[in-house]
Amino acid sequence: MSKPHEQHLYLVLDNPKPEEGYNIHKIDVTRNLDPDDTDDLDMRARPLPGPPLIRVDAKHHRAKLFVAHGTKILAMQRSPGRAAPALDTRTMAITAIPLPQPSNRQLYYRSAFVSVGDKLYSMDERHFKVLGLGAVGGGSRCRSWRSVPSPPPFYPGRVACYAVHPDRRTIFFSVYHGSHLEAPFARPWPRGRVCSDDDYAGATVSFDTETLKWTLRGYWKLPFEGQAHYDAELDAWVGLLKGRICTCDVPPPITGEEDAGEQPKPAQKLGENQLFRHKGRRHRGGALVYMGSSTFCVLECVTKDEFTEEQWEKLRSPPPLLLYVRTFGLKYGKEGRLRMASCGRRAACYELPERTNDGEVFMFSLRALWV
Q1: What separation in angstroms does the CA of 352 have from each of 48, 79, 318?
Q2: What are the Cα distances from residue 147, in Å, to 68, 193, 211?
Q3: Each residue's pLDDT tens digit, 275-288
Q4: Confidence (pTM)
Q5: 3-class DSSP state for residue 334?
Q6: Beta strand ranges found along 165-278 (DSSP E)
Q7: Are 102 and 126 in contact (CB under 8 A)?
Q8: Please, which pLDDT band fits residue 193 given cuts at 50, 70 and 90?
Q9: Residue 184, preceding bond cis, omega within 30 degrees?
Q10: Fewer Cβ atoms within 10 A, N terminus or C terminus of the chain?
């Protein structure tokens, strides 16, 4: 009987030199993180644990193209060989998978990837394709990407957030603006009057991966930034909103041919705690990772030193960076308020390698995956 797969946190960090691509680091949140008993994480700064697992030769500022799918990390960077490396975190074996082939390079770099069960979906402005998990591994099991006959009714670059339904077959997508939907859900901008933000605060549709049907859920937007995750204990989707944890009730699925029409906007709650410890110039980026069972990891990249506005404008090389990694539990407190659990928190502060000036001094790519 095979041993259950133990998940870990994997960090995809761009190397100091652009020609060196990315390093993938493995973080054991139990062994590598300390009890979070202090607010001054800078005093505990240390190098990243161990050497990187692997280096991937890829262009910088494309970290979003690293995708978690099953037990694998896929580096979905465009390649002349039309194949991408896949690191199996269970066996540490590296295999190759086919890449979806868009009509041009620019469309590919705007692609979005969504993993649902054993299927991986890829969408760009003109294509909507699916790859089964069986394609990972090569040999006779390797299959090509297949076009999905029901294209998305929106341009992927306008997606504000998305979440997979707990039925594990339905994906919800929210776009920034109600007018961003295309036929048959298009909502034209009214002529002759100025619209408020509430008139076009977004729109949400869902896609059933079994019936291949798109459904309009309503002209409202899910409250998240990027991906949200379903947590069974909270019975809600959980994600980031303006630096805080946010939860949202999950609408019921629609299966078969029924059409429930527009649905009301689901209830949401905003957490009491600000997740990021620094604002302004020192904050250089952050991410939220779901670890299961109401447990989360928040990552924050900050400059090692404080800068005034004048000092920042005079910088000619990238400043030294630190990476905060903190885990915490989430629960509903009194009166149903969303809050971070006071016990079980762990944290670490890592020194990131010094960077060279590659023409984009203040750009930094961070991708964190729980696999």
Answers
A1: 7, 27, 12
A2: 21, 41, 15
A3: 998 877 788 888 99
A4: 0.88
A5: helix
A6: 170-175, 203-208, 213-218, 226-231, 236-241, 244-248, 268-274
A7: yes
A8: very low
A9: yes
A10: N
